[in-house]
Structure formats: structure tokens, C-alpha cells
Amino acid sequence: MKIVRLNFEEFYHGKNRNEQERATYNRLILEKENSVDDLSHDQRKIEDSLHNLNEELHRGYRSLAMILEKDHQDGSSERYRMIQKNEDQEHFFKRQLQEIENQLLEGYHDQRKKIEKETEQLYKKRSEIPWD
Q1: 128: how many CB neighbours lie within 10 A of its CB?
Q2: Across the chain, how many H-helices and E-strands are there?
Q3: Which residues fall in a coiled-coil region (predicted)?
Q4: For 18-74, what is each residue's pLDDT tens digit?
Q5: How many domains does the chain have?
Q6: What is the mean pLDDT of the chain?
Q7: How far apart (Å, rounded) are the C-alpha atoms in residues 132 and 128?
Q8: Would residue 105 count as lying in a domain?
Q9: Which structural domain, as residue segments, surrounds residue 70?
Q10: Residue 73 pLDDT
Q11: Is 47 among the domain residues?
């Protein structure tokens, strides 16, 4: 039977190194989780801004429609043409805003998934560090 002598310094530094490595992974995991929180916060701000912009556009086009109704009460074809042009522009801008919002949401979703995957990898690496 062979007796293995373990130097206290070797034992302590090995354990200390594992603790330091675990602490590093904890810090990296926290940073990733904070990044996901920041992304979610930024996404909500952009969604709110786009919603407010959409509301402002709608109010502006409704105001313009009311002005057109007052100014052209004679039923002329010019009035109808301007009203139709106004409605077409409103629909165009709504579609554009919706498309932009969809692209942004997809981008945020993809970025969040990427960060979550990186976080899972960090958890896995941290769990592989021995506790001895």
C-alpha cells in the first residue's frame, strides 16, 4: 500500500483555485443574466415608443381627415381623392411600423436565445468544477 502525502499548500491552492474559478463563472453568469434583463427592458421601451408613434400617426391622420371633411363638404371628387390618399398613407405607415416592430422583436428574441444558450454553457462548465 502506497501512502500519498498531500502537501497542505497544494491542497489549499487547488481548492482555492476551484473556488476562484467557480466565482468567475458566477460573475459571468450574472453578467449574461443582466444582459437578458437589459435586452428585455430595451425591447419594452422600443415597443412602447412604436406604439406611441402609431397612436400619434393615427391621431394625425384622423385630424387630417376631419379637416378634409370640413374643407370639402361639397362632395367633390377632389375631396374623395384626398381622403383616399390620406387613408392609403395611413395604412402604408401602419404596415411599415408593424414590419419594423416584427423585425426588432425577432432580433431581440434571437439575441436573448443566444445569451441564454451561452448562460447554459457557463452553468454547465461551472458544475464541472470539483468541490474538493
Answers
A1: 9
A2: 2, 0
A3: 83-125
A4: 899 999 999 999 999 999 999 999 999 999 999 999 999 999 988 888 887 776 666
A5: 1
A6: 86
A7: 12
A8: yes
A9: 9-127
A10: 63
A11: yes
